[in-house]
């Protein structure tokens, strides 16, 4: 768990009242997973909602205030910075050390010297497969490397590294499409994924990332199933001066609807909408997340502007199945690959590029708040090989 999510801010004593049913929470599908709390209750905001947000709640059909906008009165003091923070490139390299160690050790033997022959290609094939690149990407890379070898007239195994790096960079480069958030205001980003993939922590990291670019951010605590996810976001929002729209034990779609209305009323740049974790095989939950998307569209017809699947890199080739299933259900526009630091399966990016390419917007290589950055194919390849 992130340290910035670990620290909990004790909530103030809060009166509770029963909410009215929310009309935007259409009854197309029953709430798929009962919330842990028996009856939804109202969390009164720590600071009174500005009038604009009240308007937003009226617009959303909530006669009474049922979502809470948690707004800290003042940002927490910044934690003392370490003497010198490693650069992103250093952290990327450190984060990819497991994949690099596995790949690098095997490749060091291959690239050590000697002739380029069939035995060498066979060994290279094994190395790529064990780095979780998958059969299709491995076959593609081998063919590409062979072509480069013959085009460049390479003879010695030591020259193979450059050819492989170029082939891999070419394969994964199409995934490098940085997210453009300027075109819409608010730009609504919906995050989906299986349990524990890193959605909530990625939202915290993204909020910080966009704040550092001078953008205003609002968070929708749409993971109404796991209470700790809402608390994570609320605590994080309080410490970083970001408004969090939350509802205790309520409906994810309604939370997202209210968040968008609040963001519109306040002129917020970016809405980050969390959702509960689910497996693609849990069909009722996949239907529920489709409903969340539909309700977001009701709040704002062109939204969500980005539907991101958050993937845990540790699952290797299984990531492909998740991409296909969530893409079919939601129409994905982007991916975030987390926990590349904890795995030797970083090659899965090549598998995604070959078999089901969806833009890889961000990669996560550590637990620190700065360890999520836009994906750069060349940086990634360099960090993997050098
Ligand atoms: N090492 C490492 N850990 C990460 C990274 N991203 C997320 N985590 C950790 O992964 C764990 C799960 O993260 P969450 O954000 O709670 O996952 P989630 O997808 O919101 O989980 P659910 O709400 O259960 O679906 C936490 O302990 C995070 O600290 C990463 O890039 N590297």
From TrEMBL:
It catalyses: GTP + H2O = GDP + phosphate + H(+). Residues 38-51 have a biased composition (Low complexity). The gene is ftsY. This is Signal recognition particle receptor FtsY. Keywords: Cell membrane, Cytoplasm, GTP-binding, Hydrolase, Membrane, Nucleotide-binding, Receptor. Coiled coil: none annotated. NCBIfam families: ftsY. It is a peripheral membrane protein.
